[in-house]
């Protein structure tokens, strides 16, 4: 179902005309109100008046996460605090959190885009939306909540954690749509089984998963284990929160980015050069309707490509390929670029191997080492050493075939790899301590 | 003719083996025979116990990975060349031993050895045809 027929199916020329108009307004606004942008535009020798076509956007400088930190907490706000009705922030695990503020209109726009996203995922009025994204400073919980209410569905504000209760509520309240991180959905399935509940038998029919990169293989695993259709959603607090882009139920292939509110670009992360549609690179987003913190050419660090091909669902907004990793998650091991998602796809393709894994990177005598920790379960366990050693060797060989790097596979006891209720932490890099 | 054995996956870290034996002991399970096979990262503890199903479910509840497999218990004459004679019989019939370990108790004048074969049925046939005594599960659990 399409939530907003008028805007979601606008012809391309109309989308681009709207984008250009809104882009000019946004540039003028930030130039007038945000000292950071005025200064960075001045340094780059650009002014909002120079923008005659959408292509002119690429002359403007990028905004980085560091710029948000440097302007902590309110320096990038484009309106006075009395117009800000909500403040969110990122977790700040790597420094000061990045703070974002929303005006009343921003919240309305966000709710609209989340309602569109839910509808695109196949949810509608009558659905019971079990929202297990964390409520609080993190944008996931409240972002999905407001969208679900706008949609007119019944929303259960579960938030994260308290897994046993989550399972009880799903059973008793008849939840039909689950929103959480993909790794938490697998944890829920596992925990349900321990409670003697077969999660496949519940009323759940759709899962909307985001906030961490996941693979097509994990999708298969989730769909099988939970007996649902798993939909990928994308967002980030710096731009809005969840609901920047989502897959449609019809194609489940690529995420429609709501182009009447955002302008996506793909750049070469090394050179900053804009790449044509279809090429893989770093996603850069410009917001063109946000009031609180408009972002001009924000480097998301997420790696994807733009899919310009028309979609079967009828939406005209272009799609982003499922994120294949983050530039800051990318590990360089002995000179080879490695994304945790690549190792994940190797593991998931080996029958019986658990989707929980951890990568430990270290350096011994100036040589990088990679250890892949994999949990042993009843299906993969054997009373014979050689069977387990064959399994380790097979995993190591397949990783070597794919990435060209030698790794050590360590089989570990079940449940020893930490389960996450939010974003999964897949990598421990000891090289940083050395 | 078959004996049930449970095997447990144990990471090489201190205290894990102690924990397995503690958990089993508290559940009232008595260990009859055991063997530990280890590599640098992990070990496999194989046990014959008096209450196999209880042992398995108790360990599973405590988060261990546990499997049940079938092995056979063979009476071996307790004298020089006793075991060698049996292994020769197996070798002649091309029965491959995956692993073996000794039982704690004796059975009369004989020692008891636990064997794991890739083809258990065939091994039982070869052994009995050659007059070698294979013990029944119930005999073993209550020894």
Topology of this structure?
The complex is a heterodimer of chains A (434) and B (143).
Chain A: H1 5-8, H2 12-33, H3 35-44, H4 65-70, E1 84-89, E2 99-103, H5 104-120, E3 128-131, H6 139-151, E4 154-156, H7 163-173, E5 177-180, H8 182-194, E6 206-209, H9 216-226, E7 229-236, E8 241-247, E9 255-257, E10 262-267, E11 281-287, E12 298-304, E13 306-307, E14 319-320, E15 331-333, E16 336-338, H10 340-348, E17 357-364, E18 367-375, H11 385-403, E19 408-412, E20 427-429
Parallel strand pairs in A: 3-4, 3-5, 5-6, 6-7, 17-20, 18-19
Antiparallel strand pairs in A: 1-2, 7-8, 8-9, 9-14, 10-11, 11-12, 13-14, 15-16, 17-18
Helix pairs in contact in A: 2-3, 5-6, 8-9, 10-11
Chain B: E1 3-11, H1 16-26, E2 31-38, E3 42-49, H2 52-61, E4 66-77, H3 82-92, E5 97-102, E6 110-117, H4 120-129, E7 134-135, H5 137-141
Antiparallel strand pairs in B: 1-3, 1-4, 2-3, 4-6, 4-7, 5-6
Pfam families (chain B): ACT_8 (PF19571)
Protein name (chain B): Amino acid-binding protein
Domain ACT (chain B): 5-79
Considering the chains and any ligands shown, give keywords for the structure.
heterodimer, A: 434 residues, alpha/beta, Rossmann fold, GMP Synthetase, Chain A, domain 3, 9-stranded mixed beta sheet, 4-stranded mixed beta sheet, 23% strand, B: 143 residues, alpha+beta, VC0802-like, Alpha-Beta Plaits, 7-stranded antiparallel beta sheet, ACT-like_dom_sf (chain B), ACT_dom_pair (chain B), Amino acid-binding protein (chain B)
């Amino acid at each position: 179902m399409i939530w907003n027929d008028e805007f979601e199916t606008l012809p391309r020329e109309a989308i681009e005309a709207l984008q250009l108009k809104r882009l000019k307004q946004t540039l003028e606004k930030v130039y007038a109100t945000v000292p950071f942008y005025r200064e960075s535009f001045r340094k780059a020798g650009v002014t909002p008046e120079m923008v005659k076509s959408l292509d002119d956007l690429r002359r403007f400088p990028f905004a980085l996460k560091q710029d948000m930190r440097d302007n902590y907490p309110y320096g990038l706000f484009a309106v006075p605090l009395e117009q800000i009705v909500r403040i969110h922030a990122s977790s700040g695990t790597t420094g000061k959190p990045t703070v974002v503020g929303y005006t009343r209109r921003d919240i309305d726009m966000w709710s609209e885009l989340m309602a569109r996203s839910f509808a695109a995922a196949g949810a509608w009025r009558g659905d019971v939306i079990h929202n297990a994204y964390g409520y609080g400073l993190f944008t996931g919980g409240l972002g999905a909540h407001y969208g679900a209410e706008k949609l007119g569905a019944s929303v259960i504000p579960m938030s994260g954690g308290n897994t046993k209760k989550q399972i009880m509520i799903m059973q008793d309240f008849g939840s039909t749509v689950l929103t959480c991180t993909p790794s938490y959905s697998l944890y829920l399935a596992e925990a349900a089984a321990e409670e003697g509940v077969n999660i496949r038998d519940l009323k759940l029919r759709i899962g909307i998963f985001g906030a961490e990169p996941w693979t097509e293989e994990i999708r298969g695993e989730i769909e099988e284990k939970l007996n649902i259709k798993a939909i990928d959603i994308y967002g980030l607090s710096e731009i809005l929160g969840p609901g920047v882009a989502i897959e449609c139920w019809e194609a489940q292939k690529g995420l429609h980015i709501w182009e009447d509110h955002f302008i996506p670009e793909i750049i070469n992360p090394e050179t900053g050069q804009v790449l044509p549609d279809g090429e893989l690179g770093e996603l850069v987003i410009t917001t063109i309707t946000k009031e609180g913190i408009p972002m001009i050419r924000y480097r998301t660090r997420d790696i994807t490509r733009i899919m310009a091909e028309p979609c079967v669902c009828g939406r005209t907004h272009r799609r982003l390929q499922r994120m294949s990793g983050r530039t800051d998650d990318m590990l360089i091991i002995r000179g080879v670029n490695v994304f945790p998602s690549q190792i994940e796809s190797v593991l998931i393709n080996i029958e019986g191997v658990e989707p929980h894994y951890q990568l430990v990177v270290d350096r011994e005598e100036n040589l990088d080492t990679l250890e892949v920790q994999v949990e042993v379960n009843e299906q993969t366990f054997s009373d014979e050493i050689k069977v387990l050693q064959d399994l380790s060797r097979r995993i190591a060989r397949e990783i070597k075939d794919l990435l060209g790097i030698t790794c050590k596979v360590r089989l570990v006891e079940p449940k020893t790899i930490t389960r996450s209720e939010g974003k999964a932490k897949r990598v421990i890099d000891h090289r940083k301590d050395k | 003719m078959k004996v049930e054995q449970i095997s447990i996956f144990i990471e090489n870290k201190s205290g894990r083996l102690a924990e397995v034996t503690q958990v089993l002991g508290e559940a009232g399970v008595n260990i009859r025979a055991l063997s530990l096979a280890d590599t640098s990262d992990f070990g496999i503890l194989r046990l014959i116990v008096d209450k196999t199903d209880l042992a398995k479910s108790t360990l599973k509840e405590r988060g261990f990975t546990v499997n049940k497999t079938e092995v056979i218990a063979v009476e071996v004459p307790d004298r020089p060349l006793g075991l060698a004679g049996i292994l020769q019989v197996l070798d002649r019939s091309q029965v491959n031993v995956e692993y073996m370990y000794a039982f704690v108790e004796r059975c009369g004048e004989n020692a008891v050895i636990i064997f794991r074969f890739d083809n258990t049925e065939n091994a039982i046939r070869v052994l009995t045809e050659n007059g070698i005594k294979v013990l029944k599960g119930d005999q073993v659990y209550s020894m």
